[in-house]
């Protein structure tokens, strides 16, 4: 029983999300779409494996837009079609942030710029706290999705839709996988200036995450459990 975790860049490890899959008996397979040497020019070619080889798939976040075909179209379009194939073959998919936006595009929704970025901690209004709790969840995104036809939005806040389910797919807009080290990786690759431009202190944000890391990991574990037990089982 294997789960494929798709990291779109080299500084977005799956953290406690992968940890919980392993605890649940999965062999965790990780792959990186854009390697470090292509981070500045990310329009690489990537061969996605047969989704039927995996019991679940987790497409992760990315610093690029899920709408930006000009910048990452060589692999963006193929990944969207790959997620459609996974759905046709009933392979459960947990899409995280950018990965959730890809699910929206794959199934007839759309993705575009939000009125403002959402960076840092946010609670969500959840209709299904048994799947997605109120949080708080860590956010780092500039875009938002329109919920696909037939999907059920299960969480939101005043800025953006935060989660939806569609068959065996669960999309979340936030970052359950965040750790202090992964946030530092983001900050070292352009994120620090983005946080400062949002009027926040990056070091305080990092310190807050450091203080909350155990609670963050527990929420990530609960989310993976809910995905496996309540979403992945529904055909």
Description of the molecule:
This protein has helices at 15-23, 69-88, 98-106, 180-197, 202-231, and strands at 2-7, 27-32, 56-59, 93-96, 110-122, 125-126, 137-146, 152-156, 161-166, 169-172. It has one domain (2-231): Class I glutamine amidotransferase (GATase) domain (Rossmann fold, 3-Layer(aba) Sandwich). The two termini are 18 Å apart. The model has no long low-confidence stretch (mean pLDDT 97). The strands form three sheets. A five-stranded mixed beta sheet has the order 4-10-9-8-6, sandwiched between helices. The chain has a three-stranded parallel beta sheet with strand order 2-1-3. It has five helices and ten strands, in the order E-H-E-E-H-E-H-E-E-E-E-E-E-H-H. The chain is globular and about 45 Å long. By secondary structure, it is an alpha/beta fold.
Task: Provide a quick synopsis of the model.
This protein is α/β, with parallel strands linked by helices. Helix content is 37%, strand content 26%. The chain has five helices and ten strands, in the order E-H-E-E-H-E-H-E-E-E-E-E-E-H-H.
Looking at this protein, list some descriptive labels.
single chain, three-stranded parallel sheet, 5 helices, alpha/beta, globular, Rossmann fold
């Amino acid at each position: 029983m294997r789960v494929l975790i798709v990291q779109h860049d080299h500084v977005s490890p799956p953290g406690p999300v992968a940890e919980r899959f392993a605890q649940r008996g999965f062999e965790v397979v990780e792959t990186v779409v854009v390697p470090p040497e292509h981070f500045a020019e990310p329009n690489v070619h990537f061969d996605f494996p047969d989704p039927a080889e995996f019991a679940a798939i987790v497409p992760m976040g990315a610093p690029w837009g899920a709408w930006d075909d000009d910048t990452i179209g060589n692999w963006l379009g193929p990944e969207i079609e790959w997620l459609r194939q996974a759905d046709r073959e009933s392979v459960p998919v947990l899409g995280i942030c950018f990965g959730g936006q890809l699910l929206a595009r794959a199934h007839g929704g759309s993705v575009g710029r939000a009125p403002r970025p959402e960076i840092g901690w946010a609670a969500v209004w959840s209709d299904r706290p048994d799947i997605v709790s109120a949080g708080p969840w860590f956010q780092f995104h500039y875009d938002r999705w329109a919920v696909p036809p037939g999907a059920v939005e299960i969480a939101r806040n005043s800025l953006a839709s935060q989660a939806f389910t569609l068959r065996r797919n669960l999309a979340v807009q936030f970052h359950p996988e965040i750790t202090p080290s992964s946030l530092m990786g983001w900050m070292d690759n352009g994120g620090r200036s983005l946080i400062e431009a949002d009027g926040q202190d990056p070091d305080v944000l990092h310190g807050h995450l450091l203080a909350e890391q155990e609670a963050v990991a527990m929420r990530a574990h609960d989310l993976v459990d809910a995905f496996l037990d309540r979403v992945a089982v529904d055909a």
